[in-house]
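Consider one such protein record:
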Amino acid sequence: AYVNAFLSWTAWQPAGKVSYVAYLVHPGVLLTYFCSTSRMVEYSDGWYASSYTFTCVWTFGVALLFYLFVEQPLANLL
């Protein structure tokens, strides 16, 4: 009962909607990121950390824009 109440809390709804859009747009962000470089990648801990941070920030940034300017306006039409 407590878990259901916690997960049904209305504050989670925007995060859930943006994370779903992030799930939809992340392949495009990854493809753009990894195909835009013309040099060989030197794998290291720093490269993994910066790549992960970059793709997370850009994925959720693009997802937020899609949610605000595409999904939300279309949902308001219904």
In short: The helical segments are 2-7, 12-35, 45-77. The longest helix spans residues 45-77. The mean pLDDT is 92. Residues 67 and 75 are 10 Å apart (CA to CA).
